[in-house]
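Limitations
The C-alpha cells in this dataset are predictions for the assembled complex, not deposited experimental models. Users should treat interface geometry with appropriate caution, especially where small molecules or nucleic acid strands are included. An illustrative entry is reproduced here so readers can see what is and is not provided.
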Amino acid sequence: MTESNQATGFNRSVKEDAPRGPEGLASSSLSDLLRLMGADGADLAQTDAYPVAMRRLRAGATLFHEGGEAEAIYFVSVGSFKSIRTAEDGYEQVLGFLRRGEVLGFDAVCMGQHPTAAVALEDSRVYGVRVQDIFTLAQRVPTLDRVLHLAVSRQLTSRGEIADVMAAVAADVRLARFLVQLSERMQACGQSPRRLYLRMSRSDIASYLGVAHATVSRSFSALAAWGYVQVSNRDVEILDLERLRGFSRSTRGLMDEPARHAAAPRQPVARNGPGSVGRITA
Amino acid sequence: MTESNQATGFNRSVKEDAPRGPEGLASSSLSDLLRLMGADGADLAQTDAYPVAMRRLRAGATLFHEGGEAEAIYFVSVGSFKSIRTAEDGYEQVLGFLRRGEVLGFDAVCMGQHPTAAVALEDSRVYGVRVQDIFTLAQRVPTLDRVLHLAVSRQLTSRGEIADVMAAVAADVRLARFLVQLSERMQACGQSPRRLYLRMSRSDIASYLGVAHATVSRSFSALAAWGYVQVSNRDVEILDLERLRGFSRSTRGLMDEPARHAAAPRQPVARNGPGSVGRITA
DNA sequence: CGATCGTTTGACGGTGCTCAATCACCGTGG
DNA sequence: CCACGGTGATTGAGCACCGTCAAACGATCG
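Predicted assembly:
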C-alpha cells in the first residue's frame, strides 16, 4: 500500500499548471474531451464554453476507490489504468485494462457508488465529468451524449472479453488470447501490433487471466519456447502473430491445424504441447 | 439446432395480437417502456405518442445473432435471456443471464454489429428501439436518455460479475457464488430469495462458471451434501442462505470461519470439504 | 551497493477435465 | 399402456495441468 495518490476526493487541489476551475481542479474545455473521443468537429466550436475538469495521476495512484461515492466519470486522455475489485481477503480481481479514449467509472451511475476501483498503471491524465452534470450536459450537447453512448458500448464489449480469456482453456492459451487482445488494441491505435510493452505486473495479468501468479511466468516461457514471442521482462515482441493467433484459438485435443509452414524453432506440437487440456466440452 | 425462432430480421411479421406498427411489428408506446424501466412518471403522459416495437419470442429462439447487423437494442419485458458468444469450434461462452428490466444488445452500437448473441430461455417479450433512433429519441425524451444510461450502467456491473464467479476458486465455490447472485436478484425483484427455478441448462451454467459440464453436477451434489441447498432437477431451494453466502466467500485453506453455529446436517469441513484449492494467491 | 520488490523456476499434491456408462425425463408412435 | 429413441443430468475412473509452497534470481531505487 505505498500509494502515492493525492487522496480520493474529486474536489481536491491538484498540483497543476493548467488553468483552475472553481473546484480547484485544472480545467479544460469540453471540446478537448470531444476531440479526444474522436467526435467529428461539428458543433465543437460552441462547446469551448463548457469547462471540464482534468486530473493527473502518478503511477500507482487510485483514481477512485471501490465503494467510494460516485462523483464523476472519467475519460482516459493519456496513460493507462486497471479497474479492479478487491475481495474481503484482499485478493484483487482485475476486470480490465483501459487506455486512451476509454471511459472509467460509468458502472457507478446506477448505484451512486463505485462497484470497482481504478488504479493508474503509469503517470496518466483523465477528464472528469460530474455525475450530476452528465444528464443535463448530455441534453445540452448532443455530441457528448453520442460520444458517451459509444464509449460505454465499447466498455461493455471489453468487459465481455474477460470471459473470452477466462473461459476454461489451458493457461498458455489464455495468455495467448490476452496478447492477441493487446496486439489488436495496439493496431487500433495505429501502433505496431508486434511490439508490446506491458504496463501491468505479472500478478495483474494473472488476476485478469484467472490463473496463478507463477503460472503466468511459466506460460510466458512456454510461448517463448514455442517461438511465438520473445519476452524480456515487460517487453514482449510477437514473432509470429498469425501462428500466435491460431494458437489462441486452440481448443482441446491436438490442434486441428499444426500450421508448421516453414520455420518452427521448436515444434509446438509435442508432449505438454499446445492444447492438452484446452477447452471445456460444449 | 432445433430453433423455432421466427428468423432474425427486425422487420419481420410476427404473430401478434397487439396493434401493428408500420414495420409489421407489434407496437406499444414509449411510455410503456419507460414504466417498465421504473421511470418516475414525470413526462410519461407526453410519450404516448412515440410508438415502440414489441417482440415476442418462444423459448430457445434467438433475438439476434452474433455478427448480425445492429438493428435495435432491446429491453426485456417478460421472460429471460442468455447472452452468448460462439467460438469457431462451436463452444458457447455464456456472458450473462438477463431478466426483466435489463438491456440487450447495447454493446453493438459502437460497432454496427452484435459482438454477442441473445437467446430466450423461455417464452419472452422485449421492447426494441432502433439504433438509428436512439440518439434522436434520447434527445427528445430526456427520461429515456436517463433510463438508458442507468440500464447500461447496470449491465456493465453485471458483466463484471462473471469475473467474480470465474476468478480462480474451487468449482463448488463458483457455483455457490452463482446461486447467491441469483438469490440476490430474486430478492431485488421482490421474490423469495430461497426458492430458485433455473431457466438455464447445466451446460449454460457450466459455461458461465468456466468449468466443465460434469463438474457442475458434482458441485450441485456437493452443495446438497453439505446441506446448503436442496436440488431437484432445475428446482433449487436454499436451505441456509447465510452459510451458503459464507461459503461463497471462502478462499483457500481451511475457511477461517467454520461457522458451525447450530445445525450442520453434514459437517462442511471435511476431506474434500469446502475450500481446498479455492483462491489464487494475491 | 544493499534492500526491497517483482519475476522465474522447481517439486509435489490435488482438483477438475476427458471419456464413458448409467439413469431420469419426455414426447412419439405402435 | 408400454416400448422406444433422444436429450439432459448424474456418477465413476484415470491422468495431468495447475495451485501451493519455496527458493533463487534479477531489477529498480534510494
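Some entries come with short summary sentences. For this one: The helical segments of chain B are 30-36, 131-140, 142-166, 171-188, 202-209, 213-226, 241-248.
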